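Mods, move this if it's the wrong board.
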Amino acid sequence: MVALLVSTPLLAAELKWPNERIDSWHGFKRHQFTVDGCPAWVVEPVQARPGNPWSWCLEFPDAFTERCAATGLLTNGFYHVHIVVGNTFGSPAALKHFSAFYQDLQTHGLAQKSALIGLSRGGLYAYRWAAENPDKVSVIYGDAPVCDFKSWPGGKFKGKGSPSDWTELQRLYGFKSEEEALTYRGNPIDILQPLSQAHVALIHVVGDADDVVPTAENTDIIEDRYRRLGGEIRVIHKPGVGHHPHGLEDPTPVVQFIIDHAGHPKP
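Not the wrong board. Structure tokens:
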């Protein structure tokens, strides 16, 4: 009996954090609280799938929400979560906050593996945390994701770049010079092997006319390298579309891909 109680995930009704505030997010119950000094939140599905699967939007959780799978996953029994680390480009300090948040979610009974959502620069956040924690991730959904910071914000190829963000990124990563940043080998394009070995499934949605985060400098490289590593990846192209709008008018293909690869049955 004791073993059963320890191994059984908490029910949704039991979710509670110290000094939390309850509100509504797109019609679903949301818990707002603080973890590791950062604001964080968890949104509950009406009925959770067995095993309490969850999706995690690492940056821009309120951008193009209906188009980017989150509400579709909630409707299908996934929890949805976020922790606010600001414009930190997946820096080492940000990854530590992510890990603290993950550990907190584990104590509340959420599944061991998450489906990560990386929008735009959120691709840096998602891939870098996943590469350090491949056993904690089932799927990465990248939407026009930054996969090499030399492309954005660096602007070292054909993309527009962002000089102010490039300067801030170098500061947050602790690079002593631009040369050190340019030779860094911790970008998503460089750290795919742990993900392939852990059988993490990837799905990207990209605009073929994106001149902010050009597909050729980001997703195309991920796709080529991940296939060479034997990993599973699907890329959905939007002809003639730029960096915005993110997501799909009908995000069902992304929602279904995540459901199929998260390994949790229907309620």
